[in-house]
Amino acid sequence: MARPVILFSGQWSDLPLEELVPKASEWGYQGLDLACWGDHFEVQRALSEADYCQQKLDLLSRHDLSVPVLSNHKVGQAVCDPIDARHQTILPDYVWGDGNPQGVRQRAVEEMTATVRAAQKLGITVVSGFTGSPLWSYVGGYPAPSASVVAAGFEEFARQWNPILDVCRDCGVKFAFEVHPGQIAFDLHTAEMALEALSGREEFGFTFDPSHLHWQGIDPVEFLRRFPDRIYHVHVKDAVLTLNGRNGILGSYLPYGDPRRGWDFRSPGHGGIDWEAVIRALNEIGYDGPLAVEWKDAGMNREYGAEDACKFVKRLDFDPARPPSGSAFREA
Amino acid sequence: MARPVILFSGQWSDLPLEELVPKASEWGYQGLDLACWGDHFEVQRALSEADYCQQKLDLLSRHDLSVPVLSNHKVGQAVCDPIDARHQTILPDYVWGDGNPQGVRQRAVEEMTATVRAAQKLGITVVSGFTGSPLWSYVGGYPAPSASVVAAGFEEFARQWNPILDVCRDCGVKFAFEVHPGQIAFDLHTAEMALEALSGREEFGFTFDPSHLHWQGIDPVEFLRRFPDRIYHVHVKDAVLTLNGRNGILGSYLPYGDPRRGWDFRSPGHGGIDWEAVIRALNEIGYDGPLAVEWKDAGMNREYGAEDACKFVKRLDFDPARPPSGSAFREA
Amino acid sequence: MARPVILFSGQWSDLPLEELVPKASEWGYQGLDLACWGDHFEVQRALSEADYCQQKLDLLSRHDLSVPVLSNHKVGQAVCDPIDARHQTILPDYVWGDGNPQGVRQRAVEEMTATVRAAQKLGITVVSGFTGSPLWSYVGGYPAPSASVVAAGFEEFARQWNPILDVCRDCGVKFAFEVHPGQIAFDLHTAEMALEALSGREEFGFTFDPSHLHWQGIDPVEFLRRFPDRIYHVHVKDAVLTLNGRNGILGSYLPYGDPRRGWDFRSPGHGGIDWEAVIRALNEIGYDGPLAVEWKDAGMNREYGAEDACKFVKRLDFDPARPPSGSAFREA
Amino acid sequence: MARPVILFSGQWSDLPLEELVPKASEWGYQGLDLACWGDHFEVQRALSEADYCQQKLDLLSRHDLSVPVLSNHKVGQAVCDPIDARHQTILPDYVWGDGNPQGVRQRAVEEMTATVRAAQKLGITVVSGFTGSPLWSYVGGYPAPSASVVAAGFEEFARQWNPILDVCRDCGVKFAFEVHPGQIAFDLHTAEMALEALSGREEFGFTFDPSHLHWQGIDPVEFLRRFPDRIYHVHVKDAVLTLNGRNGILGSYLPYGDPRRGWDFRSPGHGGIDWEAVIRALNEIGYDGPLAVEWKDAGMNREYGAEDACKFVKRLDFDPARPPSGSAFREA
Amino acid sequence: MARPVILFSGQWSDLPLEELVPKASEWGYQGLDLACWGDHFEVQRALSEADYCQQKLDLLSRHDLSVPVLSNHKVGQAVCDPIDARHQTILPDYVWGDGNPQGVRQRAVEEMTATVRAAQKLGITVVSGFTGSPLWSYVGGYPAPSASVVAAGFEEFARQWNPILDVCRDCGVKFAFEVHPGQIAFDLHTAEMALEALSGREEFGFTFDPSHLHWQGIDPVEFLRRFPDRIYHVHVKDAVLTLNGRNGILGSYLPYGDPRRGWDFRSPGHGGIDWEAVIRALNEIGYDGPLAVEWKDAGMNREYGAEDACKFVKRLDFDPARPPSGSAFREA
Amino acid sequence: MARPVILFSGQWSDLPLEELVPKASEWGYQGLDLACWGDHFEVQRALSEADYCQQKLDLLSRHDLSVPVLSNHKVGQAVCDPIDARHQTILPDYVWGDGNPQGVRQRAVEEMTATVRAAQKLGITVVSGFTGSPLWSYVGGYPAPSASVVAAGFEEFARQWNPILDVCRDCGVKFAFEVHPGQIAFDLHTAEMALEALSGREEFGFTFDPSHLHWQGIDPVEFLRRFPDRIYHVHVKDAVLTLNGRNGILGSYLPYGDPRRGWDFRSPGHGGIDWEAVIRALNEIGYDGPLAVEWKDAGMNREYGAEDACKFVKRLDFDPARPPSGSAFREA
Prior knowledge:
The structure is a homohexamer of 332-residue chains.
Chain A: E1 5-8, H1 17-27, E2 31-35, H2 43-48, H3 52-62, E3 66-71, H4 73-77, H5 85-88, H6 93-96, H7 101-122, E4 126-129, H8 147-171, E5 174-178, H9 188-197, E6 204-208, H10 210-214, H11 220-226, E7 231-236, E8 238-241, E9 263-266, H12 275-285, E10 291-293, H13 302-316
Parallel strand pairs in A: 1-2, 1-10, 2-3, 3-4, 4-5, 5-6, 6-7, 7-10
Antiparallel strand pairs in A: 8-9
């Protein structure tokens, strides 16, 4: 299909964008899903410096790369999370400030708002990212949260995100929330609850990343069929179950790549996801946005893998049927 | 085998012990795993009132019930957890106090110490319970905890629990920690880490409850084979996977019994656990303590279920081989 | 649960009812689902003879059997089927008449109407049966029917059955159509279409027989969850897949019991159906009608099997949870 | 292997043959399995016009395409089917005539005879097609056909087809009947019965299309091993099971491509068939005829798919072992 | 069914028969499959002492036990095996003699002949046992045996066994060879070859023990369907696969009960065999001989297990259908 | 990865090396694992003729092939096997001699010693091969070997092989024993026992060939994780299970390629082995030696297959991760 195959720059922020761009182009990518960290895209400079955005666009266009999506997972995480020391490691200093939770969350809201405005300046209509969650620590633990505790968590989520979504609406930008453990929604039912908490407002949809669903035992295709008009962005990332009787699905706090984990991320096509089924379902729902490779695989050289992934996705992606006008033999 | 089949009283604390005891006896149980909440067993009264313990023992013995284990999961949870509003609902007022986290944790340590002393007074050598966890909220979420964060969490666990275990040592009591999501250990690797954090001290072992392992994709038998000399208590509780492509393993914050959950608890023998394999492995490692039914099943009448479970466990439990002295035909 | 376990008399019509009734009672059944063929129940005599119904009820009650359901599958089959020679073998002579298709269908409508009135006379509120189908011969074959052909078939079904359902409404009787290959509906989607064709009128619901769904690869529980308020009757019949690479799911026109078939019927509990899941789902949707064993198993002595089945169903059926009033320990 | 990879033209009859031929050649095909409908091949013109056949052969040969097989499924369907309105849509007007069933069947016999003669004129030795079936409507339905009904159906099949097969014998042509639901045979047992009804005459063998066997739960390799000397033609078509608990194997009268179906056709290599095993079994039995792609996939652009399929089959097909003359190391 | 449930005495030869008989009777058995070792049955005394046989029969009959089968696996093993030190441990001294292989094999032939005559004296028509094998050591190893080596092995088998089978014929006794690894036949193909080597003589059939087939990945029911008229005896023994990625199917020379083995024997109903399918297939082929429990389970107390097994088999065994004379409703 | 892809010459010994070398080079191989039979490599000539080795090296180097491994499975087999007629077919005449077992074994020891010295002369540091086994004939058979019999077998193995390994030590050569049925070790446990019998001396490690483990039900990755520092050589050979209920895992003495076998060898990538997992595990343990294709597939043309296999392995092999110096986004 004509869906552009792009690379999410987030895992490559150790490289200056100047270095990444020619590589991505050489590997075959047609664009970037640009991360708002490292020097890839700096939100405040984008808003304050007159030619910052144009320079980025020029750099990309010199290598024939488009930039259809801007991503700010790290700041989004702080918008409605219980703030602790971990957040300092992922936030810009000016968002972290003194680290007082209430203030951090407030500044995260403002930074996400700025991200939306910067996207508009870049001519981008989709911002992708995380939301954080007031409820995550209750997943699977003890005591289980009561229904009212859960409801309160979703209300807080809505309270924090509605102002950002208002700016989205004003700027013609959609927020593509990545459904992901640790976030307000991580599966079908919680995604329904998140939409409901926002009264289904159109600015809010999903970044579909099947890897997070696969290890939870969910068929990613069911997600696409449940939310056909809310798929605003797609991450191509694979995952594998490595359950052998001794490994557990919760990962034991072990780093990726450790063989004692119950699941792991994989370069696309090297894991357990039925990509053919995913492509067919994307065709069914008429998704025609980019396919962004988010490359993570603790067991493979990343440059080899990024190129391999680009080829894989191009080989995979095919057009849906356009039925012929005339009638034909339909059954044998 | 001669292992007594007993009932964990924790799920029945809405009934006065006077009411539960004759029922348990009638259902066929040979003893109770007595919970330190409701009126089943009150730790402070046990220590301060001269005949409290004896009255409890008399009540049980009138119905031919033994009490080989005392359980205090609720207070144990607070020992090294990040304290929040949920804990108020599970703690005695005098442990919660003003709710200041540091103080709550300190009082929880003291109450667990008291629990150990009360067990000694009852003539019980095994206390079962939870530990809480400084790390649980990082499971599966974002950003993943670094190795040093994980190490610090296990150190805090050891710091909080070592004083309690010192009292265990002095009182001749073992603490049988229930490996369970939300606790310091919930699978094989984290159980190894917990033992290591305590330098393997003998007072600390496990309450083996296969239901929590089963839904994580772990074979419970592998747990028994990894820790053959640390199985200090056994809960008989079943679980079932209900993955149909739409349900997720993390449960979506849905209550037990909701068909949209990815797993659920079940009355023993009504779930997915291979109990025959569990019994054979218990025989292999020489476990001869009680088998305590922890009855939870949101889809079954609990009195029917408690009786059904007792019969199931008695039917299930068989003696290991005692090889005959003479030689025999060994192969055909 | 208090659901009565009854026997569907249809497979026993070679025995006079006088002979079957004491056997059924001895095997442990609490009632019959009475078939309108053989001498079990003759519709025209029931309407024309003053004491026919009362004599039947007396016979049953002498053996403590109730009769909550009347079944007339054979005549129902002819209501909207393309009539051919096969139908003569299953219809009373006065319904077959000269065998002219249009006339046979018309007389079948009248006989089903009479069946409903006879049920009312017996004090029965559920009539179970087949519908026939104008579309069945197109299943899986060539050429596939167009959407308009399918629509026309469902319209014909509605045209034929609405008059019968009008009488149902007047008599306070529900028609429990058995979803079954060969009938207007045989799976979830066709059941939806049948309800839609009848504008969802309440007189029309389903006899749920999981065996027919199982061999089609359908989870019977999904049927119950899709139509929770349309389950008017339940057949307990099991089925087994016998696919070994050489057998086909369509059965090769081979009789039941032939090992070359791809599936077969089985005595309840001797096949592949997850009965525990079925009972839990019946509890969930609040079904409290009878559980009627429809006994078919080409590999088992039927009298042995009928008794075995009755015991199986009684052992299987359990009450749903009635949550205790007080609060209890809910998580460990 | 040297087996030619060809395209079955039946699904492309909306395109004039002039248009299809250069496309097929460009996609990599080496020949066509030519359909007797659309303008691809007109039987009566072939017999009555002197140069019709040669012109077709010339057109193909200009693009280096051979034509080893002629197919006439649509007329074959009418030879022993119960004729109804559906048949009018697939038959030439002169075969349908007044639509009187007996006459239609008779004219279908004559047209199939003509097809065989036309094949001979083209220099083709294999005609592929359907048979129709007097028995299909009884599959899976109610009441099941008795053994004598089944026997009568196979007799009728033989009565109708023997005259056509006599002409085959005279013309040196084999009829490769496509085993397929809706036809006289659709699985192993019915294929045995069809052969038996014809006393195993050599003119009658099979077009092996594994897709129809796969969704019935049959291993296509077992078919090849059962009828090693009756495989007269091979269709390469894939199929996929899409059973998710709610979909049924009988398809619910839903069109291909609807996600609520229990199975669907797929472009070769995009479904569930183990093609490697099929190729190995074809090698085992020594089949050296063409591999004809019958392209059907409701979820893929057909021109993309036809080319993809041709490459897939060429990549797949490999030579069997030719053991070396000398002895070698055979075991490590 | 009326098939007697008996106990194979071979695994109990450490107990004097006087001790075993009352136990077996108490456990519920109806007879013994009597082993020719220990003091259970001594072949030479049976032939030389006038009342030896009658005394054995009297002992059994005092406890209502029949003896329909005599077993001599240990001596049978030596008939065509390459003799080595292992055989000394299983043979009577007078068969072992000086241990010269040729002489041992010859004396084993004579002892098996004596066994057949002793059976006749006891009134028994089935002798069960092993054959040994000249080929076993080549299974799976290196270098693989050539076709001529295999053929020679089967010829040797026939040469050694034909004289014994001649005596069988004369005495009206059948030899029920237990298909088993280590023997001339251990699966379907080798069983066919063994029959062929003996030209299918009727004195030679099989003791069907599904446990040996199960761990080889063979469906025991397929064995019954392949050799329906050669099932002369049945052993009821279960087996379980314990493959976890680390264990191997060949058993690593580890003793039964070691968790590192890839398979193990189990008490009937405690392993992986589909006993329901076995019983149905035995009904299909009309086997009406005894069902002999051969009790082996390294993880269970053997007296508990022997009783449990007897109850299991009695519960399992049911009569095949006896179709009713009249016609009935056959389809719903 | 930079691991060279080479071809094991053993299966091609019917071709003179002069003929094989250019083919191997053309197919894409980078070297040979050279077999000591046929004319590929003659041990005695290598030691006695001055320029024999150099000529072999020159031949290879003219076609850019290296020779990192020398293989002598056939002679190794005789070192501690019970010698019988089969061995004559695989041994050089001067090793077989008069065929007296003790002498054959002694000469096999000497020939293996010579092989090690010849390897040194070629500049090769790894000799691959078989060991034979005094125990193999006891696998799975009757009676099972006692623990002391097993221990004696491993002692004999050590006694025979230690002198050869002493020469290995002196020559700087490692012996890479191919774990394989028929040898002293064939799975994880027996491999542990073999190492133990040799007190873990470093000259002895393994040729890892996953095909032999796969059909035994063992996950080859578990072998690599158990012996990470003993993988001295790798064979790339695939295998497939063909269990269909009738075939057995022990192979029925049938030749490769017979569809009645329960498993078979396959060209790499055409069987059931998870090669991606194997490569990842080889990366994990840091194996950087050659990947030697041992090509065996009874259903494929061997020249086609050898080329296909070389491409497959090159496509498969990828570098492990080299983590970037800077920090990056690690979780989404």
